[in-house]
Amino acid sequence: MLTLLLLWITLFGSVCGSFPYTWNCNATSSACTRELKAAEDSFTPQSKCKLECVGASAASTRVLWPLPKEVSGNSGKTSVVNVVDLGYTGNTANDIGADDLDALIEDFKSKYSSSVGDVEMNVAFEVENGALADFTDTSDESYELTISTDEQGAVNVKIKAASYFGARHGVETLSQLALQDPVDKKTYILNGIKIADSPSYLWRGLSVDTSRNYISPAVITKILDGLAAAKMNTLHWHLSDSHSFPYVSSTVPQLSEYGAYLPDKVYSPSTVSDIVKHAKKRGIRIVPELDAPAHVGYGWQWGKANEKGDLVVCLGKEPWTDYCLEPPCGQMNVVNQDLYPVLKDIYKDLKDSFPSKWFHMGGDEVNFNCWKSEKSITDYMKSNGWSTDDRGFMKLWDYYQKKAYQQLQGARSEDKPKAILWSSRMTEGDDLLLLDKENYVIQFWGSTKGDSAEEQKYKKQLKNMLEKGYREIMSNHNELYLDCGFGAWVGAGPNNWCSPFKSWHQAYMSDIREWVKEEEVDISEDKVKELILGGETAIWTEQTSDSDILYKVFPRTWAYAERLWSNPSKGKPGEVGSWEEAEERLSHFASLMNSEKRGVPSNTMKPEFCLQNDGKCVLESKSSSANQVIHSVNVIIILADFVHWFF
């Protein structure tokens, strides 16, 4: 053992001795910058500097993401600890969930390689109920984390929480306060700090489409790891669309047999079970979506051969621009009564696969031209005394939605199952009243900014829904759609439909409560908190696959995670709540997540020089006029491109 220790010291001395730089703290700006060492033995690693550089603000704000609600008692001092061999005393409250809490500690330790520490480290929980359970709307995610030193210099960590979920968040925060430096390989932990933390929003998530392009289970688990690290609690899984149906239904296996791109590009019950378990341990619920009555196609064409008639109409119909928004077209044959028992069977299978009480029914982009082109549908409408204009097709859509909800009730054996619908034509004006606000939450994907007629329509729709008392999940595409800003995939052109690219800055500053004030929505502040459950970034995969999805999802979803978790007040540039202040912390967090032990890659935010030198890559405010010029030039270029391609 002594020989190994001497070898380690020799190697450490060799590495640090040959590295010419050290990090120094500017106490005024709380910035750590890389400088040449004054002497061979004057090395301060960057990790130690970041933790200790308190200055005028808490050192924790330099390294934590998302920002905690309350930080106190920060000493600005660190100890070198051996995390791998830490002392763990279990749960001092009771034995409920002891094994699950033990697993949290083992996961924490796995983030570090074996290192020599000269200070003892002990961790204890004080958790009312540490048992791993399915995440629900009433799950308590709050926690308190205290790091202190005793008279002997040992580091003692206490995590207090009501539930497993709060304890997990506490451990996640602890892992960001114990940094293993890449140069000297030591693990530095911040002493003398107390954090009291809880989320601002109930619903904090990401919507992932796995129909347009298949996303492998291995990559989905990486996405879950990335979400959990930023305290996100929801993965909304868009399982099917007109392009493919990869979910294997035990009751209706024909859907994936006809709908999967390839036999191995499916999500079997065992695969789904593994993904759900992976999510559960990370405090994440998975909410499945079966989009309907539009966005259905391949997978549904088996009905006629099985004496159930046409379950879907307009499948692959051309020209597709007349019948849907993107190829291939497809829409449910809502007048075929054999459709509804099939729906009930799928809903039941999805209930068995996903324990979440929430279910997403889709519901957007219904194309009346598709239904209008099918004689069996228009004949049915006429027999019921419905007109075949838009008002008549709204009645047909309402007929489907009510029958589909009845199937959901039967499948879940619940009087009022928790259903979600995308905002749509049905959520505009008085048509919104077709939907019982007790049964549905609306996921709003329209725009919250802009002055065009379409943008004004979106804003009016959201305002109307809130003033009528409908609960909302925000996924406004002008800030939270992650597939925007790439070349068009249908037709010629440099930009897809929702260009330009949505930067992490836009996601970070997407504050719906502030929007409600600015737009003078006629509801109280308490009602806003009640109705707006939270939000999701969204990645649609027309132009995304395993090869690039992680880089499109992160770091932008991490940016939105802080808005949903602590929702810091918008400060002046450089102050907490501004994107300028957030940038260094988010860059640090992304670098931490990209490390070998965490293994969640993301789109690169800046040169590594900037990561090693706080504050050196900031455009000073005196250059704001230059920024305006650059922005104006970019707008002109985009408009010129638009004119070139479309006129």
Describe what is shown at a glance.
The protein has 647 residues and is of the alpha/beta class.
Task: Report on the architecture of this protein.
- This protein is an alpha/beta fold and 647 residues long.
- 36% of the residues lie in helices and 17% in strands.
- The protein contains 21 helices and 21 strands.
- The strands form five sheets. An eight-stranded parallel β-barrel has the order 12-13-14-17-18-19-20-21, surrounded by four helices.
- A hairpin with a 5-residue loop joins strand 7 and strand 8 (155-163).
- Helix 5 (217-229) runs parallel beside helix 7 (269-281) and helix 8 (339-353) packs across helix 11 (390-412).
- The longest helix has 23 residues, at 390-412.
- It is elongated, with a radius of gyration of 27 Å.
- Mean pLDDT is 91; it is low at 1-14 and 622-647.
